[in-house]
Specification:
heterodimer; A: about 240 residues; alpha/beta; six-stranded mixed β-sheet; 9 helices; B: about 220 residues; MetI-like fold; about 80% helix; transport (chain B); MetI-like (chain B); transmembrane (chain B)
């Protein structure tokens, strides 16, 4: 369970998050949507402390992430993250990308890490690319490897920061398919996305952010048909 | 008039200087790399004191002539500490300390040029700072700065000729000695020039090969 209480984040004088609170239950799939600059990515990045909140409390399971005494590196092992621009390690092969952290952070043996990586690569449909370097992969393939890399740590939560926004249209589908099957397998997921159809189909809840505030927190069926707030209505009219 | 016959018998003597020059360059390179990486890490790190020390170090070694640094190490250190220092260790020390300053700037630039996302991805995976630097950031930085580093080594190889002033028997010094013994300075110095030039060509060639090897992932 992830609990966010009164989360504030400012960059200098610019307050990006203005007090967000929500609870995300195990196995829930959350889609965060909203106009650009609404604070979606910042919210996501606060959860694993890639951004340090200015104020507020975030709890993941038993760990109070925002407590200075918490070993954030330990927490991050448990929170997978997928970025818009993949950030694969360009000097390592696909297999090495996936096995580096399990071997060097969790101390798992090479044999075991490789076996796990092979299994994940099959899962994302890229086993034949295991020895390729990232620059030989398409955007969609890179993102699927990035997902496998995050999963290799056996995280209990996965964060996705606009995972398909940097992809050519024909590659979006393959990445979303992997994410969908991950959701179906019961992974807790928090996804910042502009893919409205995907959010509607896969998410259990939509968090609609605007101007650094959580404007709406509703199931997709309701959000996309009869949003409560005027701001969400306006946003949906523009994007749908 | 040019008369190479006068210096031909001395060519083996001059050639022996290659070993001396290489020793200085190799020793200084290793020292410079280690020092350069440490200084670069201090410069990009969060510890203010280390950053100031590293910046000050760099500005001193870049802001004064290398020949002065060399002479201070060779002449002033014995005077100060009452120990004798041979030309070779003094030369390696001076060149190592000096190129450490230059290399640290090259590496700092290289680290900063690595996509910030690489650090974020490492953090998100829980990779500790030291491992991230060693396995993720530095290898990428090194690849980017390979041409600049090679340039530094080639410069070092040529600049090492100034060890002549403290009497280390490198290529330059030997050519000078030969020239002095029979007054055919020009011929002797030209031979030294050819040797340096060939060494530079070989280093450039090796550098290109290394760059190619490191760009396997491109």
């Amino acid at each position: 369970m992830i609990k966010v209480e009164n989360l504030h984040k400012s960059f200098g004088k610019n307050e990006v998050l203005k007090g967000i609170s929500t609870v995300i239950k195990e196995k829930e799939v959350i889609a965060i949507i909203g106009p650009s600059g609404s604070g979606k990515s910042t919210f996501l990045r606060c959860i694993n402390l890639l951004e340090e909140p200015t104020n507020g409390v975030i709890t993941i399971g038993k760990d109070i992430v925002t407590d200075k005494r918490t070993n954030i590196m330990k927490v991050r092992e448990n929170v997978g993250m997928v970025f818009q621009h993949f950030y694969l390690f360009p000097h390592k092969t696909v297999l090495e990308n996936i096995t580096y952290a399990p071997r060097n952070v969790q101390g798992i043996s090479k044999t075991e890490a490789n076996a796990k990586a092979d299994e994940l690569l099959r899962q994302v449909g890229l086993y034949e690319k295991r020895d390729a370097y990232p620059n030989r992969l398409s955007g969609g393939q890179k993102q699927r490897v990035a997902i496998a890399r995050a999963l290799a740590m056996n995280p209990s939560v996965m964060l996705f920061d606009e995972p398909t926004s940097a992809l050519d249209p024909e590659m979006v589908k393959e990445v979303l398919a992997v994410m969908k099957s991950l959701a179906d397998s019961g992974m807790t997921m928090i996804i910042v996305t502009h893919e409205m159809n995907f959010a509607r189909e896969v998410a259990d809840r939509i968090l609609f952010l605007d101007g650094g505030q959580l404007v709406e927190d509703t199931p997709p069926a309701q959000f996309f048909t009869e949003p409560k707030s005027a701001r969400a209505k306006e946003f949906l009219e523009k994007v749908l | 008039m040019l008369d190479f016959n006068a210096v031909v018998p001395s060519i083996p003597y001059i050639l022996k200087g290659i070993g001396v020059t290489l020793q200085i360059v190799l020793g200084a390179t290793i020292m410079g790399m280690v020092l350069g990486i440490l200084l670069a890490l201090c410069k990009i790190g969060k510890v203010t004191v280390l950053r100031i020390i590293a910046d000050f170090y760099t500005s001193i070694f870049r802001g004064t002539p290398l020949v002065l640094q060399l002479m201070i190490i060779y002449y002033a250190i014995p005077q100060l500490f009452d120990i004798n220092i041979d030309p070779m260790p003094a030369a390696i020390l001076a060149f190592g300390l000096n190129s450490g300053a230059y290399i640290s700037e090259i590496i700092r630039g290289g680290i900063n040029a690595v996509d910030k996302g690489q650090q974020e991805a490492s953090l998100a995976l829980g990779i500790p700072y030291a491992k991230m630097m060693k396995d993720i950031i530095l290898p990428q930085a090194m690849k980017n700065i390979m041409p600049a580093l090679m340039n530094e080594f080639i410069t070092l190889n040529k600049e090492s000729a100034i060890v002549t002033v403290i009497g280390a028997l490198d290529i330059m010094r030997r050519a000078y000695v030969v020239g002095g013994s029979n007054y055919h300075y020009l011929e002797a110095l030209m031979i030294a020039g050819v040797i340096y030039y060939i060494m530079t060509l070989i280093l450039t060639f090796l550098g290109k090969k290394l760059e190619k090897r490191m760009s396997r992932s491109d």
